[in-house]
Amino acid sequence: MSKIDTVIFDIGNVISRWDIRFLYEKLIDDPQELEWFLNHVVTPEWHFQHDAGRPFIETSRELIAQFPDHADLISLFQSRFNETNPGEVAGVAELIQQLHGADIPLFGISNFSAEFWPHFRKGKPVFDHFQDIVISGEENLVKPDAAIYELALNRFGVSAKQCLFVDDRLDNIEGAEALGIKGHHFQDAALLEAELKALSLL
């Protein structure tokens, strides 16, 4: 059995906290209206089109046609997207720093909009430790499709058996494990640290 010597990270809710609610709870005061808006208008399912490569100008035009009374709120999603990511997940950046200090190769695979990624990435030194990051919106491939993992392994120059993949979504973990990558279903930094130590990565 190959020794695991490489770690691949997801980003949203592993390295950076993410929820559409973080933005719109600032903009919609009424709790019931907020819940309705998040469940019917700007939903994760709508946003995931951006992760798959669709441009915001198209998705927003379609959504505004459906919900014209909410045009202003919909239009703000792109310019204020970073407010859906209000900060780092506690303890993970420190683990990444430790892994980097131990010369463990670090990579990323993230379902992320190609349009939103550059502005989000700017000024976040945690990503300086990564050798490469596959962004779904740039590749028009999304997790848990096997093709995005295969593309990543080829691009990173690593084999499935030498990698640990850390993601908060179980379906993404299962997609990676189907190719022979060891998965860690992320819940918090303490459990991830224990896994990294068990694998002699820390």
From TrEMBL:
Q: Which residues form a coiled coil?
A: none
Q: Which domain of life is it from?
A: Bacteria
Listed PANTHER family: ALPHA-D-GLUCOSE 1-PHOSPHATE PHOSPHATASE, FLAVIN MONONUCLEOTIDE HYDROLASE 1, CHLOROPLATIC
Protein name, UniProt field: HAD family phosphatase
